[in-house]
Amino acid sequence: MIARTLSSLLLAAAPLCAYFPEDFEAPLETVAFGSCNRDELPQPLWDEIAFQLPDLWIWAGDNIYTDWYAGDDRRGGITAAEWAAKRYEAQFNRPDYTAFREAFPILGTWDDHDYGKNNAGAEYELKTVTEELLLDFLEVPANDPRRERPGVYGSHVFGPEGKQTKVILIDNRYFATGPGAEEPSLLGEAQRQWLASELTDSGAELHLIVSGTQVLSQEHRWEKWDQYPETRQWLLDLIVERQVPGVIFLSGDRHFHEISRLELDGLPYPLIDLTSSGLTHYWESFPGEPNRHRVGEVYAGLGYGLLRIDWEAEPVEVSFEIHSEAEEPELQLSVPYPGFATADAPTGEE
Q: What is the value of pTM for the model shown?
């Protein structure tokens, strides 16, 4: 209660900034993110997140649910497109979220439920409609590259030279063929080449890759990058071959929270996938599942992810945290990120 009261005061006193980030010069030191959020359910975490005074909030997918609503079907005969617009509008105008979005800059991508249909990919017939709805919800400027091409992928660089973080937003829906396709493709050729360029032609010290689904976890039966093993391996190989510094994955989707860690030969730091899923609901009867890359335990409860970046440490250190309404983090891991020059290597084809 004390934290909520204090965060309400801090939120009220915080200088209003653009919903879409305006300041790209200051280094990111605190980044918060989350996923799996239904507009009709209680949302108790906005005050808690505000208390952390994040430099940036990132939506990691399932930001609303256009295909699932608690209780009876309340569409009342309106079309699926109208229903999706109604759900985005309801979340955008919630008083608790409105107070938050008027105080903190926000970026984001999507996953299947805000895309419009469970597990949907390139075949989804309303994807151009929901694409525009998402970009409007995020208040992406009219001249942003995301407005000018298919899909919602994009990137932004924050901070001065020596303290730069590149946020890379992946679209794992618009181009996805489905894992059963003859030639499975998660990203599509244009996004794949774009991602290669974003990682290899970058001067940033840290690269936050935001994906609606998990990148590292391999053993569960739900959606994940490992359903597209060639694409996943291509990305891991690229990171090693190009010696891309400070790659960090942020993911959602699972309705619980966990930290995955993968050591790759030739890469002088571990890859971390911080999964945070459950802003309004979570897997209450989670039975457990194997994950050879997991660090520590799974936290099944309402929560959000937090990165704390210590630019003064030698080397730079990042604390990965999962928070609930409790005072202390539910999960936590600190990792140092040594700086090194990138190397030239050929870009793979999808």
A: 0.93
